[in-house]
Amino acid sequence: MATADPPPPVASWHPGCGDDCPSTAAAPTPHGPPTRVRVPRIGVDSPLTVLGLDRAGALIPPTDFDTAGWYGGGPAPGDTGPAVLAGHLDSRRGPAVFARLGELRPGDLVEVWRGGQRLSFRVTGSLRTRKERFPTAVVYGPTPGAELRLVTCGGDFDRRRGHYVDNVVVFAVTEARDPVLPTSAAG
């Protein structure tokens, strides 16, 4: 994942929302790390691992190509701020957990399990940007409410460097919290 912090690219939408944001007052914020992410439109249903940063400050992606991860150094889903979930686009064996992330559109549902609760988020937009121009401030910067950022690779594959040249970032905002689900339904 990228580390550069130049000015963010110009987007025709704001990653969050204004007065039309759904209320999150339905239930208290759950505790503990997130454990699962589900994105019905693109067939994602994955446990979450905790991710950290390398010495250069870049996000270390999950070691398992079929598992998504949560950046444990930032807000958790449901807390105020942007919770960042990352996953691979593909592997040498084929598509990985976030292979279809770029297909998400505004209004699509993203569900995250945390503390025995299912938290629902709605996609507000997405962007694709060169890794060397990764919009760090837009992805990791403060937000007024609970938001999600889903990140994967995209664009062309640079065989010489062994990685994709772009990142795809999907933005989502929280909805009212769902009731507590039985453990078997959460994962």
From TrEMBL:
InterPro entries: Sortase, Sortase_dom-sf, Sortase_F. CDD domains: Sortase_F. Keywords: Hydrolase. Residues 1-37 are annotated as: Disordered. This is Class F sortase. It comes from the Bacteria. It comes from Micromonospora inaquosa. It holds the Pfam family Sortase. GO terms for molecular function: hydrolase activity.
